[in-house]
Amino acid sequence: MISNRTKLIILSLLTFSLILSGCSLTSGEKKKIDPPQDVSYLKEDESTTITEEEDKALQADNQSEKEAAVMTELFLIDKNDFVASKTMMLPNTESVAKQALQYLVSEGPVESMLPNGFRAVLPPDTMIHGVNIEDGKAIADFSSEFKNYQAEDEEKIVQAVTWTLTQFDGVDSVEMRMNGETLTEMPVNGTVLASTGLTRNQGINIETEAVADITNTHPVIVYFIAQNDDDYYYVPVTKRASNTETDRVTAAVNQLIAGPGYESELVSGFLPDVKLLETPKLENGQVTLNFNDAVLGSYEKKMISNHLLQSLVLTLTEQQGIESVAVKVDGSTELVSGDGEPLTEPVTRPTKINADRF
Questions:
Q1: Which of 61, 133, 311, 316 has its CA 20 to 30 A from that of 322?
Q2: Which residue ranges does UniProt annotate as crossing the membrane (predicted)?
Q3: CA 234, 236, 239, 242 torsion: positive or negative?
Q4: What is the largest CA-CA distance in the chain?
């Protein structure tokens, strides 16, 4: 079994090689080889010049395609059985929330778009009767086929539906129904569904194996790194932090540093000797962190790796009231990202999480 530290070293080497080749780690893009193009030959009197009218028509077509699509985060199941998101370009419809659930159905429209190693979470032939949003709650009504899932997928379905719907503005919680009847528990394994609605606070990819006394802990959502071939993506995990850690930002950072469980396929971008030098400061939605120099991926360049930065920003902006993250090392702000860009401004949450190239 490869330890987390060994996996981290391998990841760091891969990250360094990507930096040398000029690849951005934050984009989630994969290198693609262009397919062979048909070859045609022009006669001497033929012209390749595009007229002004043709150029305007092409621009109008491109604009129409952009307006006809909407980037949507779909929570799926990856090859390691984690619930993880992929941002996909879906048709722009009046009900984007309903459409998002339709793209969670196995053997449905998402099948041709699924990245390698991912699968949809809802049973085949599940119909979405509707998604109504009332007072911050999204009420999702499924057909009878919704109950045709494997017991081991039950909690993953609850998490995927909840996290997919709560990405939308105005949605804080989710209620699930089947043929118009409110579900108080899931139909296969009896997972209890909160009567007040499902929220992100109830967790995702819950990790409790190393917790001796769960009653003296509180949940913390952190983002670790997963790899599928040449693709890196970020997976939210609910860990348990000690109630003695009263500062929520410090608790989250410490869980990132501690990393995932020993046998987990996930890795953290943080080395174990990374430490916060002072209590984080939160003001006007911006949290400022001051680390020791172990957080640096390159001491000479004062570089913080993109993987570490992305995990940190995703983790902290998951918390209410945090919109951006500013990083210092030994009090200095003279830092650069893995792309060599100065980190002179606070970093905000990306609008496209785990997005493929479009």
A1: 133
A2: none
A3: positive
A4: 82
Candidates 267, 258, 237; CA nearest to 13 is: 267
Average pLDDT over residues 1-18: 46
Evaluate whether 329 touches 45 at the Cβ level (below 8 Å).
no
84-118 burial: b if 16+ Cβ within 10 Å, else e: bbbbbbbeeeeeebbbbbbbbbbebebeeebbebb
Residue type, 217: T
Cα angle 91, 95, 97; round to 5: 90
pLDDT in tens, 72-128: 999 999 999 999 999 999 999 989 999 999 999 999 999 999 999 999 999 999 999
Contact 280, 247 (CB under 8 A): yes
Q: What is the DSSP letter of 355?
A: B
Residues 6+ apart with CB under 8 A from 216: 242, 243
Query: What is the spatial distance between Cα 25 and Cα 268, in angstroms, rounded to a whole number?
Result: 15
**129-140: b or e for each residue (b if 16 or more CB lie within 10 Å)?**
eebebeeebbbb
Annotate 17-82 with DSSP letters as a single string: HHHHTT--SSS-----PPPPPPP----TT---PPPHHHHHHHHHHHHHHHHTEEEEEEEEE-TTS-
CA distances from 48 to 51, 61, 140, 195, 230 (A): 10, 20, 53, 65, 38
pLDDT in tens, 49-77: 556 665 544 554 444 445 578 999 999 99
Q: Which residues contact 301 (CB under 8 A, 6 or more apart)?
A: 336, 340
Which residue has 């790194």 as its token pair?
225
> What does the alpha-carbon distance between residue 338 and residue 15 come to, in Å, rounded to a whole number?
8
Q: Give the mean model confidence (pLDDT) for residues 243-258.
A: 96
Q: How many CB atoms lie within 10 A of CB 154?
A: 17
For the entire predicted model, the pTM comes to 0.81
